C-alpha cells in the first residue's frame, strides 16, 4: 500500500452495497461520491430528503453512472432509525459497508426526540442503534463486511462522565462533543472485541477520523448560537488551516474499502499531527482503549436505545 492512498487505489466496489449516514454534505457527500465512483451502490441516509435529492443530483453530475438510493434517517429519533433499518432489510439482501458518519459538533444544548443530549444522542446512540439493527444483514452478507465509525481527534480531550452523560447538571458544548467522539471509539473497539468473541470473523469494526477538514459541520454550532464572530473565526480557520472535505473523507473510504484493514484499527490522516494528509493507521488515546468504560457504555447504550446486539 502506498503512503499516498487515494480513491483510485480502492478496490472495485461493483456489486457491493454501502450505507453512508449524513450523505448529503461534507464528508458524507464526498465519501458517497468516491464509493459511487468505485462502483458501489450507495444508500444515502439523510435527515432531509430535499437536501439529499440535491446532493444526489450533484453526485450524478460528477459520476453519471452512480448507483444511488436516497432514504430518510434522523439519528436524533430512534424510531426513525428503526424504520430506516426495517426499510433497508426489506429492500436489500446484502450490506458490505456501514459508514457511521453523520454528526453534530459543539452546538448549544439540545435534546433528541427521546430526550438525550443531542451530541451524545446523534453521534453515538443513533449510530449504536443503527448498527445493532443492521448487524444481522452485515453478518449474513457473503465475504467480509465492515462497520466504520467516524470519530475525531477531539476524542483525545474527551472524558466519559457517566454521572452526567446528558449534560443535565453541567453542559459544555466542546466537552459534550469530545465525550461523544470518545464514545464512538469505545463503541468501535468494543464491537470488534464482541465480534471476535462471537466468532464473527467476517464482520470487522473500524474507527476513523478526518483530521481537520473544512465542512459545514463547523458552521452549525455558531449558527445555532447566533454568534457571527465565532462563525467568522471558524471560516477563517478553515481557509487557513483545514484540508479539503475530499481529503477528509479519504480515511472513511480507506477504512471501508482498502485491503489489509484489520478490525479495531483507527484510520486517519498521516501528515502533520494527523490533521492533514493521506490516510493510514493512527493511534487513538489510552482512554479510547479502556475496556471497563467500553463495557459500561455498551450496557448503558443497549438500555437507552432498547437495541440488544446478542453478541
UniProtKB/TrEMBL annotation:
InterPro entries: NAD(P)-bd_dom_sf, SDR_fam. CDD domains: retinol-DH_like_SDR_c_like. Keywords: Oxidoreductase. It comes from the Archaea. Gene3D superfamilies: NAD(P)-binding Rossmann-like Domain. GO terms for molecular function: oxidoreductase activity. The keyword Nucleotide-binding does not apply. Belongs to the short-chain dehydrogenases/reductases (SDR) family. This is Short-chain dehydrogenase/reductase SDR.
